[in-house]
Write a structure and sequence with these properties.
The protein is mainly alpha-helical. It has four helices and no strands. It is 68% helix and 0% strand. The longest helix is centred in the middle third of the chain and has 13 residues, at 21-33.
């Protein structure tokens, strides 16, 4: 993921451009990472997910695993 390479803006633009539940989930994660929980909450709802509360790294691992299925 581009975010892992330190380019949050590029990662955000990519997630925003993907107009499905996976894109919304990644979008939520990115806003959570920046500390914008209000914005993240809306994206979690669009993704059909409960807002994550654990470690960011764990959430990213969960997202990545879901993408690899």
């Amino acid at each position: 993921m581009v975010d892992a390479k330190g380019d949050w803006n590029k990662a955000h633009n990519c997630a925003q451009a993907q107009e499905d539940a996976i894109g919304a989930w990644v979008h939520a994660y990115l806003h959570r990472k920046e500390g914008d929980m209000s914005n993240a909450g809306g994206w979690y709802r669009r993704a059909g997910k409960t807002a994550a509360e654990g470690a960011l790294e764990r959430e990213w691992e969960t997202i990545a695993a879901a993408l690899l299925v």
